[in-house]
């Protein structure tokens, strides 16, 4: 049987947050589901989930958006990993990243959480930081704005024009990690743009 991958987009629940920078991970899950004409449905693990495939005959993908707030994402992620028998090395967490400029994507496995409370909670719940992260750049706030407020704001007008491309690239990155491995995906997404 093909490997099963759990792909989780971090964010906060409810309409108040759905278009904010902090929810860019969940927007990527929506993009991956839309590519496969899938609808996410409520799951007992406090998440909305779609079961699908990378491509016909390929790896199985469990696309998930926790219903919990960002800082307590670990419970739903851990519950889904147990439910689908997915080890940490086949978990991909998609999340916003302040330290990466808007419109850039970085990929890694393991390491620290960089102050990201959602990633911290997932690592704690899984008992290991050794899972893949697709880090979607949202950039730092201008001036003296508090980063905590910045990530809870919607994307700006100029950013919204570029957002569909960013979401598509992040979805491509997830597919590449599953299909060809982290190194191949890093070589594509970490290379300087022409």
User: What is the number of helical segments per DSSP (H or I, 4+ residues)?
Assistant: 6
Radius of gyration: 15 Å
Question: Quick one: overall form?
Answer: globular
Question: Would you give the CATH topology?
Answer: Rossmann fold
Beta strand %:
15-25%
Order of helices and strands: EHEEEHEEHEHHH
Strand order of the largest sheet: 2-3-4-1-5-7-6
Averaged pLDDT: 94
CATH superfamily (homologous) name: Peptidyl-tRNA hydrolase
Euclidean distance between termini CA atoms: 40 Å
InterPro entries: Pept_tRNA_hydro, Pept_tRNA_hydro_CS, Pept_tRNA_hydro_sf
Protein name: Peptidyl-tRNA hydrolase
Family: Belongs to the PTH family.
Active site: 22 (proton acceptor)
Search tags:
Pept_tRNA_hydro_CS; cytoplasm; tRNA-binding; Rossmann fold; 36% helix; 6 helices; 194 residues; alpha/beta
